[in-house]
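thread: overnight batch results

M.L. [08:02]
morning all. the overnight job finished for the chain we discussed friday. pasting input first so we're all looking at the same thing
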Amino acid sequence: MEYGEIITISRFKATCLAVLDKVKRTGQPVLITRRGETIAMIEPPPPPEVKKSWLGSFRSTGRIVSDVIPPAVKEKEWDALNE
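M.L. [08:03]
and the structure it wrote out:
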């Protein structure tokens, strides 16, 4: 893994917010050291999860088994209505 920067703990304490902004902006992790020994690594957060929309979530799950809009009266009664 490639590190964007290696800084001492005292410098990190003095510029904490700026370091965090830089990590987020560049995507490069930063190593924090104390007396030459690595004590922490700051990594950028993972990209946010994109939630799927509920619109269209039931697409291709249903079946039409008969008329969607059936006639108001039965076919046998049509002639009776004309009289």
